[in-house]
């Protein structure tokens, strides 16, 4: 075939022909072959059959018989000096028929699903989400949690840090509600989030009751329900993250703070009559602008 292609002056890379019947066109994917042994601390090979014997011995003891594969892995490492991971122990336990039933994870926090709403003014519906940033100089990520008011598109509060847990989110929400005087609003504030671990915790559920706001969560795989905060994330990704290379956390945080001040106070927004969110809110509160209903 190569001779024919050379005579016809057809490049080999541009010609595709049927592979012989004896060779399947698509080879089944397969992982790394199972070696059948593990090494101990001395570098000696210990066969899987012997490791299974160790497992039977451990499971035959009264104390270790209650262990699952994760703790059995630690026992094999400490008692027999084996170098192996929990995935291998899981496989061997499965072959022995000794796997413990997995515990069912139950989230006992009630979930209020996001409903269709009509927004007629500020501090009625906020959307909150968390976005990653990247510090190139340290090869580390940082967290940016932001809250946007659906009415005037203001970022009413944000948090940035090396980690982000429920306490950080609680502090963020509390500060935002104080700054925006959301407690004095006639209509109860609704904060909409996704199903991140910070938002589905019992602590945040109790916090929503203490602060007097309604917390609702969007269904899984429906980011369109949080469209306003997602749109803001695309803006900060394009106009802030991609335009800067951060060498330190401090540089990243300072740049993010500066961009959010610009976003709130000076950046023109097409959906706000080409006004910045802060300017739009002032005109809205003074009666110069009549707020159109936002259905979502």
From TrEMBL:
GO BP: any one term: DNA integration
GO molecular function: nucleic acid binding
Domain (Integrase catalytic): residue spans on this chain: 118-285
InterPro entries noted in UniProt: HTH-like_dom, Integrase_cat-core, RNaseH-like_sf, RNaseH_sf, Transpos_IS3, Transposase_IS3/IS150/IS904
Domain of life: Bacteria
UniProt-listed Gene3D superfamilies: Ribonuclease H-like superfamily/Ribonuclease H
SUPFAM superfamilies registered for this protein in UniProt: Ribonuclease H-like (SSF53098)
Function (record text): Involved in the transposition of the insertion sequence.
Protein name (Swiss-Prot/TrEMBL): Putative transposase
Originating organism: Cohnella lupini
């Amino acid at each position: 075939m190569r001779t024919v292609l050379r005579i016809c002056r057809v490049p080999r890379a541009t010609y595709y022909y049927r592979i012989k019947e004896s060779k399947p066109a698509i080879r089944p994917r397969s992982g790394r072959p199972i070696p059948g042994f593990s090494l101990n601390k001395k570098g000696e090979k210990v066969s899987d059959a012997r490791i299974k014997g160790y497992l039977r011995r451990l499971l035959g003891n009264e104390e270790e018989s209650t262990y699952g594969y994760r703790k059995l892995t630690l026992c094999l490492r400490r008692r027999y000096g084996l170098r192996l991971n929990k995935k291998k122990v899981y496989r061997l336990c499965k072959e022995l028929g000794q796997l413990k039933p997995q515990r069912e994870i139950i989230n006992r926090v009630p979930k209020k699903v996001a409903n269709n709403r009509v927004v007629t003014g500020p501090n009625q519906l906020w959307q909150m989400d968390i976005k990653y940033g990247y510090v190139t100089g340290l090869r580390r990520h940082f967290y940016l949690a932001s809250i946007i008011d659906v009415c005037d598109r203001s970022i009413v509060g944000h948090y940035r840090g090396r980690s982000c847990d429920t306490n950080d989110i609680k502090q963020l929400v509390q500060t935002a509600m104080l700054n925006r005087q959301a407690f004095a609003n006639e209509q109860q504030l609704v904060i909409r989030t996704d199903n991140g671990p910070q938002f589905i915790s019992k602590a945040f559920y109790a916090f929503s009751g203490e602060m007097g706001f309604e917390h609702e969560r969007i269904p899984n795989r429906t980011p369109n329900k949080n469209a306003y905060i997602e749109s803001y994330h695309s803006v900060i990704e394009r106009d802030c993250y991609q335009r800067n290379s951060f060498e330190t956390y401090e540089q990243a945080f300072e740049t993010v703070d500066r961009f959010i001040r610009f976003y709130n106070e000076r950046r023109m927004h097409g959906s706000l009559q080409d006004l910045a969110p802060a300017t739009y809110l002032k005109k809205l509160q003074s009666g110069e602008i009549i707020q159109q209903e936002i259905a979502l």
